[in-house]
């Protein structure tokens, strides 16, 4: 799933804050409007850089060819279906987690050269 209404700016000026089981992320979209996302009931999250991130997580419709015919991925908010990370968490969770992991979702935000992945129950998007 791709969040088609959000295209993240190449220099998004992101702010990431974790507080009280919620993750708050703010960034600029392609029109320089500020977008705020609240992730609720966080199970886990991780941040990495674009050059070491596994781009194979994204489906075909996340990619496009630019004017020079180079393949690029859209900078957006994605939900990864049938996520390997979710399968690993579920396997670990048989002994560790009390919650039913099936109610969680794996989201990915491409924030410039930083990739943020979040496993949570839901997200709420607000635009300025």
Keyword list:
single chain; 128 residues; mainly beta; 6-stranded antiparallel beta sheet; two-stranded antiparallel ribbon; 1 helix; 45% strand; globular
Can you give a write-up of this model?
It is built from 1 helix and 8 strands. It is mainly beta and 128 residues long. A hairpin with a 2-residue loop joins strand 7 and strand 8. The longest helix has 10 residues. It is globular, with a radius of gyration of 15 Å.
Radius of gyration: 15 Å
Q: Which class do the helix and strand fractions yield?
A: mainly beta
- Report the span from N to C terminus: 23 Å
Q: For the largest sheet, list the strands in their spatial order.
A: 1-2-3-8-7-6
Amount of helix: under 10%
Order of helices and strands: EEEEEEHEE
- How many distinct helices? 1
Mean pLDDT comes to: 83
Strand content: over 45%
For this structure, the quaternary state is: single chain
Summarize the helices and strands and which ones pair or pack:
Elements: E1 15-19, E2 22-28, E3 34-49, E4 63-65, E5 71-73, E6 77-79, H1 84-93, E7 105-111, E8 114-127
Antiparallel strand pairs: 1-2, 2-3, 3-8, 4-5, 6-7, 7-8
Quick rundown:
This protein is mainly beta and 128 residues long. Helix content is 8%, strand content 45%.
């Amino acid at each position: 799933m791709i969040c088609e209404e959000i295209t993240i700016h190449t220099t998004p000026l992101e702010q990431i804050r974790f507080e009280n089981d919620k993750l708050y992320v703010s960034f600029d979209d392609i029109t320089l409007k500020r977008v705020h996302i609240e992730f609720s009931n966080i199970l886990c999250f991780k941040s990495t850089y674009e050059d070491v991130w596994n781009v194979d997580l994204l489906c075909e419709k996340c990619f496009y060819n630019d004017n020079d015919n180079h393949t690029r991925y859209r900078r957006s908010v994605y939900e990864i279906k049938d996520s390997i990370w979710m399968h690993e968490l579920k396997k670990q969770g048989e002994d560790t987690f009390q919650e039913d992991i099936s109610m969680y979702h794996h989201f990915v935000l491409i924030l410039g050269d930083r990739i943020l992945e979040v496993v949570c129950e839901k997200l709420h998007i607000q635009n300025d």
